[in-house]
Amino acid sequence: MIKFDVRKSIQYRYIKYKFKRECLKNEALQNLSEDEKEKILMKATKNTRKITWLIITIYIPVICWFIFGFIGNSKYVDNTFVKWFIGIYESTFPLVNGSWGSAWYEKKGTVLTIFIKLFPALIIQVAPLFISMMIAANKILKKEIKNGMGDNCF
């Protein structure tokens, strides 16, 4: 099994960034030792990862319901948003099914073009997931700071 260093994850970096901002606001946090700060960060990251898995398991069925229930439903074909959303995906069909070229830079260019065309739809689909994960990380970090500091934190 591959070992994963939590300190290299985006969640850890985000929590560390938020923790540094909290340290600037609160003098009691500045006086903590590096070991205590690291312990708070690791605990918050561990709990955030657990909540993230829960959010993902709820989010995937919801987004599938959105795609198949709203976008794929013939009743909503005349909706402007649905037309735009389907149009974004349909605009990439010629690129995906066409010639990608023979050189590596042509293939990379095709992948980049497909990504650029799909970017607005991907933002709509993924933004709620990231926002909910950041909210969870903020709440868990404040809870861990409160647990680690006692009554002196806020």
**What fraction of the residues are assigned to beta strands by DSSP?**
under 5%
Order of helices and strands: HHHHHH
Uncertain residue segments: none
What integer is the average pLDDT?
88
Topology:
Layout lengths: L9 H16 L1 H4 L3 H38 L8 H11 L2 H5 L6 H46 L5
Q: Brief description of this entry?
A:
Helix content is 78%, strand content 0%.
Structure description:
With 154 residues, the protein is an all-alpha fold. It has one domain. Helix content is 78%, strand content 0%. It contains six helices and no strands. The relative contact order is 0.14. The mean pLDDT is 88. Keywords: Membrane, Transmembrane, Transmembrane helix.
Key traits:
mainly alpha; 6 helices
